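Support case: user asked for a sample of complex input and structure output to validate their parser. Sending the pair below.
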Amino acid sequence: MASTACFVIVSKNDIPIYEAEVGSAPKKEDLAYHHQFILHAALDVVQDLAWTTNAMFLRSVDRFNDLVVSVYVTAGHTRFMLLHDSRSEDGIKSFFQEVHELYIKIFLNPLYLPGSRIASSHFDTKVRALARKYL
Amino acid sequence: MEPGLSIESGSAIRVAVLPVGGPIPPQCLRDYAALVAAHARVDLASLRPYYSEHQKSPFSHQPWDTGCLRLKFVLGGCVPSPWEDFQSSRKVLAVVGICHLPSSPDLARVAADFLDASRTYPSALASRCFAFCPTDAQLLEQRKDGIIMFPPSDQKSLELHMLTMIQDLAASLLMEFEKWVLRAESTGTILKTPLDSQSSLGSEEVHTLGVPSILTSVIKAKKRRLGRAQKIIGDYCLLAGSPADANAHYTTAIDLARLTGDVFWHAGALEGSVCALVVDRMMGQSDPVLEDEVKYRYYTIIQLYRRATLQDNAQRVSPVSFELEAALKLARYLCRREVAKEVSDLLMGAADGAKALIDASDRLILYIEIARLFGSLGYKRKAAFFSRQVAQLYLQQDNAYAAMSAMQVLTMTTNAYHVQSRKTSKPDHASLKELGASNSNADKAHPQSVVSLFESQWSTLQMVVLREILMSSIRAADPLTSWSAAARLLRSFYPLITPAGQSGLASSLSNSADRLPWGTRCADPCLPFIRLHSLPFHPSQRDIVKRNPHKKEWWIGAGPSGPFIYTPFTKGGTSGTSKQEINWIVGEPVQVMIELANPCSFDLVVESIYLSVHSGNFDAFPVTVNLPPNTSKLVLLSGIPTKVGQVSIPGCIVHSFGVITEHLFKEVDSLLLGAAQGLVLSDPFRCCGSSKFKSVNFPSISIVPPLPLLVANVVGGDGSILLYEGEIRDVLITLTNAGTVPVEEANIALSGKNQDSVISIAHSTWKSALPIKPGGEVTFKVTLRAWHLSLADLEADGSRSPANPRRIAREGINPFLNIHYAGPSAAKGNGEVSLPPGRRLAVPLNICVVQGMCLVRARLLSMEIPARFSEAHLRPVSGKDNTSDESNMLHNDISLLKIDPYKGSWGLRLLELELFNPTDVVFDVDVSVHLDGTSVPEDNTADVACHKTRIDRDYSARVLIPLEHFKLPVLDASFFVKENGSDELLGSQAATIAEKNAKAELNASISNLISKIKVRWHSGRNSSGELNIKDAIQAALQASILDILLPDPLTFSFRLAKDAKPVNDSNHSTDENVGPSAGENVLRCKDPISAHKMTHMEVQIRNNTKEIIQMNLSISCKDVAGENCFEENSATVLWAGVLNDIQLEVPPLQEVVHPFSVYFLVPGDYSLQSSSVIIDATDVLRARAKAESPDEPILCRGSPFHIHVVGTE
């Protein structure tokens, strides 16, 4: 079954610093930005929700039509946002946790200015691999 | 679905406001509608005067003191809803006509129009027609048709009038409601919704069913009907402003509906009851108990509606919109930050319901409502998301109005996506500016703050939104918005747009501009990117000099004194603060250098660009710039300050793509800052190949009152003054006061290099011209003399071609005139005198020295050829040429100068100068030798003029300079020190000082000699100068200087004894002391000697040395054939006296005379010559004679003496 999923890392300044279409559905240009619109809109909900819980994984916070937004908030208020059609929550959670580790590695890089775009191709490959594994 | 619903909207009376009659101007319609709509709430208490109770009111609990009627005015009316029986608030219960009388003069037609219009609202219980701006005639007309006139008056009385009319309308509505309710209570009504269309209550059902069931169903139907009637009566109670009554009716209705399973009406009644509850408690602020109650009931309502929807799923019309409306109402009621989660859940649930909505406009309304609610909740991004959904729905409709709505909705979303137009984001912009400023101040501020500058870079989304705005605005035919959107898109996202896309945007920009009026302004800048590059100083700006009131000569030390325009040492102390202060002067043009960049792939034509000045005291001049793809350009913008004060230049006004926009420097600066941090897509300047980013702060600029402004130009062109080496020329310099203030004082001084090339400045000329009035001018003379080109200059000249026009006067080698000047001091109000600053004008004298005639070589001629000199040439010359020369024949005394082949001519040496003329003009050269350092006699100068040597271009010529009578009187040993230095001849210590003195004397005499030689040249009409050949002459003379300067050890001279009568009385010849003075013409022999006559002659020998010379003198006489006549066998001359081997001793610096007599037998020309062999010659003499071996005899010869012997006839 073709699935759509769009993964975005949003910095604490609300700037997307990493974007990836990780779904297996055939890519369509207008859909890609449609996904981004949904994710962007979900930030409002995340902003409120993040302070109501201790958990980093906020589960699904928003939806539009049949697309669901799941969010994982790191301690530095960087948000991992995944737009997906309904899927197992466990896989998403594992995916987020693994990506968090990768993200921390990026973050530890002294040449990386926190809040700027993640341009590492290694990171990109790893994230896509994780997406194939868990999603 | 309906927009703008809330829980309370059940209590609002819907009034259609319809424009009737002729067309109403939009502005008037808006005003009138606002006038009507101002009275949305009419207090019950104020209705009293218009209300008359005809029967007992059914609204027994009406709160007359506190209650009110709510009116909801719908401009333009609305389509009757099929659900209006279900909710009375959906009915149009009153109609108000609005008429603009000036455009519809016929009142009867207006009345008919209004009647027609109100007929489309059968549910209307009351109607009024308001007519505005009637004419007097119309006022006087009989009001038989119920048109209510609003006579023109001020706004306040108009409002009062309107209030009265609305209260009247409300009162009549209230009375109608009472009537309606009374009738409904007594007779009952049939109430249907679209849900009931096919089923349930029809009579067919009754027939088909069995009796018991018929019975039950009839009872049920009756109860159901009753319940519905109760619900509607409740609605009317609510509309009449009596929630308590309404509540009672609703309670009944709810019970009945629940009993009969009329789910839909149950929900409706429940909704009404909540509305009654809320309206009743309206006064109290947020009441948690009430809120819980409302929440609880509304969730029930939503459930009920959902059930109704499920029940009637198969049906054509679905009540799903009521469920959504209920959700929206609750959300609106709850809409607060604290319950944001609940609200957003409700709204998201409602959004999910959108799919179930069949009607596109319903979906549109749903999304609009959701967006509004999210917006008021503070969820800007959510609101923007749903707004965009709304816009897409609008765009699916294919008409201009929908496109316009889409465009407006999208424009609202721009804030959330951070792509807002600048005109709507002033405060935001200010904060950005502030941030930018603080950043540039703190240079490397915290990186985080830099990051926050570029918040929300969702570039994909931003581009999509802008593109949609562009699309919708094109469809909506709003050229300005489409221009602005395209401009923002292009400016912010050019790196993400393909070249084809960029060109497409450019063409859409120009297409939009075509439809805009000329000179439209837009808040959003497009291309190019503009940054401040520098502020090049106008020379006049730099030269403002503060005047010291305590110093008369304020210019001293004020300006830079060196050749450098900028001196690093001036103002060293004050330059600690990097902020410069710049003064501009009223009325004097200034320039600002900016850099433009076009990073796109099309040709950008900036029709005009000029500085944008908000302070209003500056006139900027526009320029046109053409930027090819991917280029940047430096452009100088200029302008004229017009008023005194501070000036701030935040950016530039650019007219490109047909629209005028303002580009701020600050924005680009922060963009570049972001680019430097890698946060922004691209640096437009770097991708155009421009240099590195350097932030230039605009300095604080103040405009000062006008000062005088002197402009200097050199008469005959401001180019460099072309001078040949050594040329002396007068240059006229004109000073013009181009300012508006007179020049009262001035001072001219020289500075720079080669100051000695300025011989004189005519100070008196300009001083007498002071003060120079505005527009006045003074011309004064500066005499220049071209300096000598050094060798390096000549080499640098390269081609050495005189025709080479690229002779650029090298910078820095020119002198310049430093002119300090100032205007009058202005008297301040308090009696003090304020000194406006003075100014400095540096007038460079661009002297370009070109190579003139050049000296190829200078040499002393060996005099092996006979030289001819006229008397005019050389007065003191001894011998004359007698060959036939027309000019020389004039002089009678021409004699042959005999040349000694070994030694040269006697007493006269010729210096030959070989001159070459490499230039392209003709030179005339004349040579003069100023004797004795005194002034040259008048006639001599006249002679000099006749004997110019002309040297054509590219030719060389030789000029002869006779050197005569420079001989020193004494031949001294010390002169040979140089030559004999190695011999240690006179190397004793004691002699050294004397030697030095003597040497100094020699050198002085050499330079004296050289300075006497002047080579003047003329070229053309007005160029003349002097050839500087001192060094060359010195070099030429160096070898033979001694020959010229030093006398021979012995001088011989002949004379006729009759001329020297006084000599005869001396008895011994050695003491003959009639030495001729140096200047006297000893040898002159004008009178010819007659033959056959004894001639007494004597030879005078002078010792020029300081030692006694012993010698062996012999005298010879030669005829023209060169035969010696003093020989034994000579037949031509007889003689008496000793002529050979005369032993003589001449004391130092003395003369001896040796007499003899000759008797010429044959007339003719003879020459006498004496020579002597010096016995025991000293080394000095040997040195003088340049003897090679010590035993060589030293021979001394006198010059030949010419005698012309005539016959006796």
